[in-house]
Design goal:
This is Purine nucleoside permease. Keywords: Signal. The chain is α/β, with parallel strands linked by helices. The chain contains 11 helices and 13 strands. The strands form 3 sheets. Strands 2, 3, 4, 6, 7, 10, 11, 12 and 13 form a 9-stranded mixed β-sheet that branches. A two-stranded parallel ribbon has the order 1-5. Strands 8-9 form a two-stranded antiparallel sheet.
């Protein structure tokens, strides 16, 4: 009797072991990727994501991801955050290579589905005093790469003529016209935002004779110029405007360091119809008539523009109107940008 029971027990054990092995051999169903509705890319944060001085990411984080867990992405500078509404975001890094390599890594992560996502590329920037002022928030209609050409010293060319010539072969990725329908939506949704200002910024603006420089902050639209070089001074500002016109773009209104490069990465996978460039002006791209360019680049204590805290708050205040509208009306936006209402 004992021998029969033992044999039965052995057969049961073998059977259970076989079942366990079969279960282990079954493929494990992969988790469904997170469907991203809007991705917000900032370029830097000053300290923590919340609770201290805000950089480009903090106001976005506090609005959308305070209760979200970070997800590390191999090859990206910082983790990505997502909320239950499909709004995701990350700090991508400053400069063209840094930011675009982070964006590439995030887009290739199988944990996310970006096939219907809208992209808001967000950060601070400079502006020419003839076209903008401290605290402005600007939507990019065109993105132009400041590089990808030939340059020479002014004294080595003809007096008064440009010192830049585009290099052949870069035509498809040195300039991008962003989707006018989407840009028009962004301008419409953001234009009613009550923008913050500061006494220090108001006082600083008065150093410039330009009426646009002296004006209160507003929501603007125009060409965003992307360059790793922190170009500065009236001469290079004029050159940037020359390049914008040379490429058939709108007036140059913003100087920044990332948008064209990130857009190229997105374009190669999803096109550019759902890309927005959003920038807040925290400095002028040149000094006032009473200071040299080098003096403006290295100001004495107390001589800086001010208004940084207010500008980063303005960026999120304007941009979140677009993000919230898209997610709240996802059935209309999922397959593409809907027509703008007539009124």
């Amino acid at each position: 009797m004992f021998q029969i029971t033992a044999k039965r027990s052995g057969r049961v054990a073998l059977s259970l072991a076989a079942c366990a092995s079969a279960a282990l051999a079954l493929p494990v169903a992969a988790a469904e990727p997170t469907k991203v509705k809007v991705f917000i890319g900032a370029m830097f944060e000053i300290g923590e994501n919340t609770g201290d001085r805000a950089g480009e990411f903090q106001h976005w984080y506090e609005r959308y991801w305070k209760t979200s867990q970070p997800h590390a992405v191999k090859g990206a500078l910082k983790p990505i955050y997502c909320n239950d509404d499909g709004v995701c975001g990350a700090v991508l890094g400053m400069g063209k290579v840094n930011s675009s390599s982070s964006m590439q890594a995030i887009l290739l992560d199988p944990a996310y589905d970006f096939s219907q996502a809208y992209f808001v590329l967000s950060g601070v920037a400079g502006t020419p005093p003839s076209r903008g002022t401290i605290g402005d928030v600007s939507w990019g209609s065109w993105l132009v790469d400041y590089d990808l050409g030939h340059r020479w010293a002014p004294e080595e060319g003809k007096p008064g003529e440009p010192v830049f010539m585009p290099r052949k072969g870069y035509e498809s990725y040195r300039v991008f016209q962003l989707n006018p329908a989407l840009v028009n939506w962004a301008v419409k949704l953001g234009s009613g935002t009550n923008l913050q200002d500061s006494d220090s910024a108001r006082q600083y603006r008065m150093r410039y004779p330009d009426k646009r420089a002296q004006a209160a902050p507003s929501v603007t639209v125009g060409t965003h110029m992307t360059g790793d070089t922190f170009f500065h001074g009236p001469g290079l500002s004029k050159e940037a405007q020359y390049m914008a016109k040379l490429y058939g773009a709108d007036d140059y209104v913003i100087t920044e360091m990332e948008a064209a490069a990130i857009t190229l990465v997105i374009k190669r996978q999803f096109g550019t119809d759902r890309v927005l460039s959003l920038r807040g002006a925290v400095n002028f791209d040149q000094g006032n008539p009473n200071e040299t360019t080098l003096q403006h680049l290295d100001p004495a204590p107390g001589q800086t523009a001010g208004g940084f805290a207010e500008t980063v708050a303005n960026i999120e205040a304007v941009g979140s109107r677009v993000v919230d509208h898209i997610t709240a009306n996802w059935a209309e936006w999922q397959k593409g940008v809907p027509p703008l209402p007539a009124k």
